Amino acid sequence: MNTRRNIKGMLAVFVALFLLLAGYLVYIVGAYGTYWFASPYNTRVTKQKNAVQAGTIFDRRGFVLATTNEAGERNYAADESMRLATAHVIGDTTGQTLGAEALFAKYLLGFDQDLGEQLSYLVSGKQRTGADIMLTADAALSEYAYSLLEGNNGAILLMNYKTGEVLACTARPGFDPARMKDYATGGYTLAEGSMVNRATMGRYTPGSTFKIVTAIAALRYLPNVQSRTFLCSGPLVFEKESGTLVNDDVNPYDETGTLREEYILLRDHEDARHGELTLEEAFIHSCNHVFAQLALEIGETNLRKTAESLGFNGELLFDELVAYPGTYSDAETDFELAWSGVGQHTDIITPVHLCLITCAIANGGAAMEPKLLKGVSGTAGIEYKSLAPEEYEAFLKGNEAEFLAACMRGVVQRGTGTRAAVDGYTVCGKTGTAEVSSAKNARAHAWFTGYIDSDAHPYAITVIVEQAGGGGTVAAPIASKVLERAVKTKAE
User: pTM value?
Assistant: First the structure.
């Protein structure tokens, strides 16, 4: 009797372990399947490329981005600028990038074909043909966005914040997918980092765009913060060695007006003194003094918790994009915490992560799953997959999103982002000017993230221009032009 009872007990344990393992495998495949399938080390995909005529890749308007000729060679758009503008979205067939060629290989190479289709090819002796796919991206809009980055490195990402569709995703420096063999043989040279999609994998200091995060933390952890007023009286003074905030009555300058060596300042642009400000006004004018003070009051733990609730220090696991998240590191001194609160210190974000947070604000708090695949057509021309919007994460509560939307509206109407305006539409946004070097003549990264507040044109955009200057003077006008073009061409 005891033996039978022991056997039953052991069997129950084994069944439980099996179910646990099975569940874990289902989760892992669901979470990381896109990464594994797109990996250049996936030998099954490599073999399939040689046995199957890959399907055609179209943009959302039916423009052919990539197709396979009778000789089995992959051909791309005839226009070189179009190829460069869409390169990171399309990817390549050598496994060096993570675009559509890799992400949607299961369709393009026929991995999803049923047994009947596979048998028909076997019986007929014809070469197997993969499915055609249509992307959410607009190639002409991407080419226009790419042209606006000419002479600079950077990235532009445009999304539909209601559906999650990626409407434009372009980055410089880029590469030409039609020249992959030439790159390999040395016939053409590539700029450093050309194969990296800066829109999804470029890791940047966020600058003042991080004030979105600090503002959300203030709403969550500082009671009645919206009704308070704050005084911006000039630079904040910290002890250089300890990083401790110094009392206001301490004079950090010597008799000649030179800053004493033992102090360090946290300044506003052009040493501005904004006077008394509400939280909304401090956001609109991008006041470093107020947001540094807010970070100190919020505290490192709560600021980090807020950042992590918005996806920092985690993973961005999308079905149709491979992307890196932002990171928020611990601040050990007053200065580091204050500096992190204005988007400096060691804060890092990617354009797609910032755009996702922007989409959540525009959408009442919920970010939609980014979508790059609009449709898939089988060999018979029957569409059997179409876009279905899915919620990715509810990053904010409704009242938080509403407040941030009001702040971002003010930025474009009367603050640092007026050059992002589009005639006839309400644009909301946040500028950022990220210091990335202490060198005397170093230029900052220029940021703008924002959206059009319109049900008919629900477009969110994030622009990063490397070492180009101020976000309000460089990135905001680019965002305006892309949004205006999207409205005129109705990127639907």
Answer: 0.89
Closest CA to 350 of 316, 318, 367, 325: 325
Nearest Cα residue to 171 out of 144, 198, 201: 198
pLDDT reading at 22 higher than 90: no
3-state class (DSSP) for residue 392: strand
CATH of region 207-371+389-489: 3.40.710.10
DSSP 492: -
Return the biggest CA–CA distance within the chain.
Answer: 95
> Nearest-5° angle of CA 270, CA 361, CA 315?
95
Angle, CA of 161, 456 and 157, to the nearest 5°: 35
> Around 26, how many Cα atoms within 13 Å sit in the side-chain half-sphere?
6
Closest CA to 476 of 446, 453, 445: 446
Q: Could you give the CA distance from residue 468 to residue 174 in angstroms, rounded to a whole number?
A: 18
Task: Report DSSP letters for 420-489, one per residue.
Answer: G--TTS-EEEEEEEE----STT--PEEEEEEEE--SSS-EEEEEEETT---IIIIIHHHHHHHHHHHHHH
Distance of CA 155 to the CA centre of its chain: 10
CA distance 117 to 129: 10
How large is the average pLDDT for residues 10-38?
50
Q: Looking at the predicted structure, is the pLDDT value of residue 289 above 90?
A: yes
Provide the H-helix boundaries in 165-233.
180-185, 198-201, 211-221
Total Cβ atoms within 10 A of residue 349: 34
Q: How do the domains of the chain map onto residue ranges?
A: 207-371+389-489
Span between the terminal Cα atoms of the chain, in Å:
70
